[in-house]
Design a protein that fits this description.
Bound molecules: adenosine-5'-triphosphate, magnesium ion
Number of strands: 9
Strand order of the largest sheet: 5-6-7-3-8-9
Shape: globular
Distance between the termini: 52 Å
CATH superfamily: P-loop containing nucleotide triphosphate hydrolases
Order of helices and strands: EHEEHHEEHHEHEHEEHHH
Radius of gyration: 19 Å
Helix content: 25-40%
Strand content: 15-25%
Structural class: alpha/beta
Number of domains: 1
């Protein structure tokens, strides 16, 4: 995977931090949030509640992509009422880009409803209303038709995708990132996505950020061990119920 990322660093303007107020009390942020991006695809991985969505939303706000999904020309929720963390972010760019996309898996249906009102844009999504496609089909259709150049901030894109479609999604990521025209920052729990060659994995744990190989992540190890022998795993896990 070639190419340099457009956004290279994310940190905090310390004078804009509001101590003792959410979300500044999340350990990741309280510890002085600092993320560097050195590859076209960066995965953020960490336990539920570690702060991934909070950081991605703030980043989307700070880049102007809107809080709830959509690209600049599809901002169906402004989210401009104020985003304390978004305002406190300090972004360093190698090259400032204005094209991009922020997508939360859970708001995807809202987003596709919004697109129904914008008939002229259908051609960009495969010429077929996203509502006539299943969740996963629509998601992949968006990836295939809309993703070109720019910065893409994705929160758990795997939520809509079967394992087979996760592989198709990885092909798209590989192709766009390899052309050096797109940067992806992706929060994920998918052990499959984490395996993308050339991607960097940042693990968020106890408020610290560590660069790891996908093999070192809990997500990968637990999924591998479980799938290698589900019966053995579950025998231990469900032992109390069985007795
Ligand atoms: N309005 C709020 N007030 C206080 N704490 C909140 C509020 N909203 C979220 N939190 C807390 O912020 C923390 C970070 O949440 P966030 O959604 O960013 O986690 P996440 O890493 O995306 O988790 P997941 O993997 O489950 O999506 C959580 O502990 C959550 O309980
Ligand atoms: Mg989340």
């Amino acid at each position: 995977m070639h190419g340099s990322p457009f956004l290279t660093h994310l940190s905090l303007h310390h004078d804009r931090v509001q101590p003792d107020q959410h979300p500044f009390t999340i350990p990741l942020i309280e510890n002085g949030l600092s993320l560097s991006f050195t590859t076209p695809v960066t995965f953020l991985v960490g336990e539920n509640g570690s702060g991934k969505s909070t950081v991605l939303e703030a980043l989307a706000w700070a880049t102007g992509f809107g809080m709830y999904g959509g690209s600049r020309d599809h901002q169906f929720v402004s989210g401009d009422e104020g985003h304390a963390l978004g305002r406190a972010l300090q972004l360093t760019w190698r090259q400032r880009v204005t094209d991009g996309f922020f997508l939360r898996a859970e708001t995807f249906h809202q987003f596709s409803s919004h697109l129904i009102d914008l008939e002229s844009t259908f051609a960009r999504y495969g010429g077929r209303s996203l509502h006539e496609q299943s969740h996963g089909e629509a998601f992949l259709s968006l990836f295939e038709n809309r993703f070109e150049d720019g910065l893409y901030i994705l929160d758990e894109p795997e939520a809509a995708l079967s394992p087979q479609r996760q592989l198709a999604f990885m092909q798209i990521l590989h192709s766009l990132a390899g052309q050096g025209i797109a940067q992806f920052i992706i929060a994920t729990h998918s052990p499959m996505l984490l395996c993308l060659p050339g991607a960097r994995v940042l693990e968020l744990e106890d408020g610290n950020v560590t660069e790891v190989s996908y093999r070192e992540t809990e997500h990968y190890r637990l999924s591998r061990d479980f799938l290698n022998d589900p019966d053995r795993y579950l025998r231990h896990l469900l032992a109390d119920d069985a007795s």
